[in-house]
Amino acid sequence: ITVETSGEAKKLKVKGRLDGYWADHLAKALDEEIHRGSHHLLLDLSEVVFLSSAGIRVLVKYYRQLREIEGSLVVSEASEPVKKVLEISRLTGVLFAGTSAEAAVATPPGLATAVAAATAVRLEAHGAAFDVFPCMPEAKLKYRLLGDPDLLRGCRFRQDSCSTVQFPESTFGIGLGALGDSFEDCRGRFGEFIAVAGTVAYFPTDGTNVPDYLVAAGASYPDVQVCYGLACEGQFSKLARFEAKNEADAVTLTQLVEAALEIAEAERVGLVMVAESAGLIGAALRRPPTVEAEGNAPFEFPRIREWLSFTAEPAYTRSLALVTGVAMRGEAGALAPMLRPVTLAAPLVGHFHAAAFSYRPLQKGNIELTKTVKSLFENQTLLGVLHLMSDDRAFAGAGQSQFVRGACWLAPLGETIEERS
């Protein structure tokens, strides 16, 4: 398999057999090109001497995957054996369209795409290139603190200190919580949660080590039993599409936060991000914070290892990450109990959670948040939920979470709805 550029597309020239063994080889090559950001692919199969059903399966899989994100996979040239199998499989009109398909893929974007691109502002900062689309330019997020974060020390959360919270599509949130009807139902399962666009995912601390989630249906929203957390409500002012400047590089969470503050033109920002992960760094509770504990648990050394799990190295590489949270410079005010240093190397504080999903390419351009997030839960596999943090230890530190490309919806933080509930 050889790869060359053809206009706006990448052309893969394939030689040999596309059978049960070599079909996986083609699948890996297609995966690599999609991971590099190529969403229009041409296949030159003129030197393929045999095509089996395993090869057809690969072609159909990536055709559908790219079509879902307004990309394309086209067989631009084919040998007679390939044409015969495509005809038998009734896929000639779908996958193979001769040189006209190659010309269509290689031409510049259509009018709708060109108009959308014209509304974006291009800038380069903090190791990435950004295309910034306006959403609601004057919008600001209202926020409220839920519960008392100080009760985590000593694991002192009880029924009277927790509450039931719903997260509609217009609200995103993070914290410690669980999905269930009551505190008693969730007592042994409270863990990190993330709520975005009518969906909630969390990591139970009941020993199953399997993340769970609920997706809103119609006007019904999941009930989350919350120990403590932060909820942000309102519309986003901007959408920033980003990509690391160099293909082999990635941008850190700190770099993206700094860019978000600059794009929002604010000292406080709330954001939701869907991005291709180059590795997540974070921690998660091992035990529920409602269990009787001694001293300063779960932070007391050496028993912290029994209470918290840490990523010793980047986790969930080559996955799609849903990240949400808040960050700011300067005085935190009422938000101070929720915030931690984003990194020791920069004067930023914040709080971010991430849900990792099996990989899929993310549609380019100006995309819609709710549709994008719900599609993750409906079509991908939820792999884990983490509280993101930097591991700044000298020599042994794992560093920060890193991302290759993605979409970031953001807005300045405005007024407090209520400081505690």
Note down, in words, how this protein is organized.
By secondary structure, the protein is α+β, with helices and mostly antiparallel strands. The protein is built from ten helices and 23 strands. The protein has helices spanning 22-35, 53-68, 80-88, 92-95, 98-106, 111-118, 183-186, 253-264, 304-307, 369-379; strands spanning 2-6, 9-18, 40-51, 72-78, 121-125, 128-134, 141-147, 163-166, 171-179, 191-196, 199-202, 212-215, 223-233, 238-244, 251-252, 268-279, 282-285, 308-310, 319-328, 340-341, 349-357, 382-388, 402-418. The strands form two sheets. The protein has a 19-stranded mixed sheet that branches. Strands 1-2-3-4 form a four-stranded mixed sheet. Helix 1 (22-35) runs parallel beside helix 2. The chain is elongated. Residues 99-104 and 106-115 have low confidence and may be disordered.
* Overall strand count: 23
Structural class: alpha+beta
Provide the β-strand percentage band: 35-45%
Rounded mean pLDDT score = 88
Separate helix tally: 10
Calculate the terminal CA-CA distance, rounded to whole Å.
Answer: 60 Å
Low-pLDDT segments: 99-104, 106-115
Condensed summary:
With 421 residues, this protein is α+β, with helices and mostly antiparallel strands. The chain is 22% helix and 39% strand.
Give the SSE map.
Layout: E1 2-6, E2 9-18, H1 22-35, E3 40-51, H2 53-68, E4 72-78, H3 80-88, H4 92-95, H5 98-106, H6 111-118, E5 121-125, E6 128-134, E7 141-147, E8 163-166, E9 171-179, H7 183-186, E10 191-196, E11 199-202, E12 212-215, E13 223-233, E14 238-244, E15 251-252, H8 253-264, E16 268-279, E17 282-285, H9 304-307, E18 308-310, E19 319-328, E20 340-341, E21 349-357, H10 369-379, E22 382-388, E23 402-418
Parallel strand pairs: 2-3, 3-4, 7-23
Antiparallel strand pairs: 1-2, 5-6, 6-14, 7-13, 8-13, 9-10, 9-13, 10-11, 11-12, 14-23, 15-23, 16-19, 16-23, 17-18, 17-22, 19-21, 20-21, 21-22
Helix pairs in contact: 1-2
